[in-house]
Write a structure and sequence with these properties.
- It is built from eight helices and nine strands.
- It is globular, with a radius of gyration of 18 Å.
- The strands form two sheets. It has a six-stranded mixed beta sheet, with helices on both faces. A three-stranded antiparallel beta sheet has the order 2-1-4, covered by helices on one side.
- It is 33% helix and 24% strand.
- It has a domain at 12-90 and 155-236: P-loop containing nucleotide triphosphate hydrolases (Rossmann fold, 3-Layer(aba) Sandwich), CATH 3.40.50.
- Helix 4 runs parallel beside helix 5 (169-184).
- The chain starts with 11 loop residues before the first strand and ends in a 6-residue tail after the last helix.
- It is an alpha/beta fold and 242 residues long.
């Protein structure tokens, strides 16, 4: 898998972004800058706007106000980004067939399909399961296969929406190991999670969202050691943010 220089796509800048659905404000005046490096992890209560922020970055939702730029360019569909949703659908074909389909859709050269399929299966630890029907894989294996399909686009930035939700500890560790491997290949990972332990293990930067607004953002080390806001302190203490 190729390693892509990120300067052409980063930073991603949200400038006073607002998103409204059915008259309800989902994101409210969000201003953030995502740089390269270790994963950025979005945390916050259910309904805080994490998934909406990821979809907005992908260009899947219209903005009510504000703008999103990639390296200063306001473009609607940067080619080198990918997203993995919490509940991915598996195609009715083998694990390898799912990846080959994703590679073909991304414009991969036919002569490279088998090599890149094998490479991606190995990257996510499914090299021995390529012939197995994707829908017969375990939940954790399907999540890793979904990661491989997202990586078929050779993205510079990968958005992950709760990739370990409902997985057991072993499957969670397998996903986290893949995320570390992806990040080590100079792919920027921006990931939403409900799991504070996972955020501690993976994040270089943390963004805390509540009611569609950014409560606090900064380095993970500082955030977990000395949160600056009362809301962050309460959230880390396990209290409910209402």
């Amino acid at each position: 898998m190729s390693v892509r220089m990120l300067e052409s796509d980063l930073p991603i800048c949200f400038s006073q972004v607002g998103i409204v659905s059915g008259g309800v404000t989902i994101l409210n005046d969000v201003s953030l800058t995502f740089l390269g490096g270790a994963p950025t992890v979005l945390i916050g209560p259910n309904g805080s706007g994490k998934t909406t922020l990821l979809k907005a970055a992908m260009g899947l939702l219209p903005l009510a106000r504000g703008r999103i730029t990639w390296a200063g360019q306001e473009v609607s569909a940067p080619a080198r980004r990918a997203i993995m949703f919490q509940h991915p659908a598996m195609l009715r074909r083998s694990a390898a067939g799912n990846i080959r389909y994703a590679l073909s859709a991304a414009g991969a050269v036919r002569a490279e399909l088998e090599r890149r399929t094998d490479e991606l299966l190995t990257l996510v630890g499914l090299e021995s399961l390529g012939a197995r029907p994707a829908r017969r894989l375990s939940g954790g294996e399907q999540q890793r296969l979904s990661l491989a399909r997202a990586l078929a686009r050779d993205p510079a930035v990968l958005f992950l929406d709760e990739p370990t939700a409902s997985l057991d500890p072993a499957a969670t560790k397998a996903i986290e190991d893949v995320v570390r491997s992806i990040s080590a290949r100079s792919i920027k990972v921006i990931m939403a999670t409900h799991d504070l332990g996972e955020a501690r293990r993976l994040a270089g930067e943390v963004v805390l969202l509540h009611r569609g607004a950014v409560i606090e953002s900064g380095s993970a080390e500082r955030f977990f050691a000395a949160p600056a806001t009362e809301e962050a302190k309460r959230f880390l203490a396990g209290e409910l943010l209402i």
